[in-house]
UniProtKB/TrEMBL annotation:
This is CENP-V/GFA domain-containing protein. PANTHER family: CENP-V_GFA DOMAIN-CONTAINING PROTEIN-RELATED, GFA DOMAIN-CONTAINING PROTEIN. It comes from Pseudocercospora fuligena. Residues 4-71 form the CENP-V/GFA domain. Pfam families: GFA (PF04828).
Length: 96
């Protein structure tokens, strides 16, 4: 997980291996073992990408998304982010 680090509460992380993936490779989903909040997810197929739950971020003034994932499954009420590359699926992005 390049450039990603936990700043507090690492001792409360619980990892769940999600094996129900299109790629067949397990997705690691990390949550808090105290409150069950979803924190982030990552896969060994793409080490430089970590999907962080937006509710865990403290400062949206210094962070903005740089990629949208799984746009093929976007629900109609979620609009495309302007000037942000879209990946229709994980496999499509990996092949680039």
């Amino acid at each position: 997980m390049l450039g990603f680090r936990i700043t507090a509460g690492e001792e409360h992380q619980k990892v769940y291996l999600d094996t129900n993936t299109e790629s067949g490779t397990s997705l690691k989903r990390v949550s808090c073992d105290q409150c069950a909040s979803k924190l982030f997810a990552y896969t060994p197929l793409w080490d430089e990408i970590v999907s962080v739950a937006a509710g865990t971020l403290d400062d949206f003034d210094t962070w903005t998304p740089d990629t949208e994932q799984w746009c093929i499954d976007r629900v109609p009420f979620i609009k495309r982010l302007p000037a942000v590359p879209e990946e229709r699926s994980f496999d499509e992005a990996v092949k680039k």
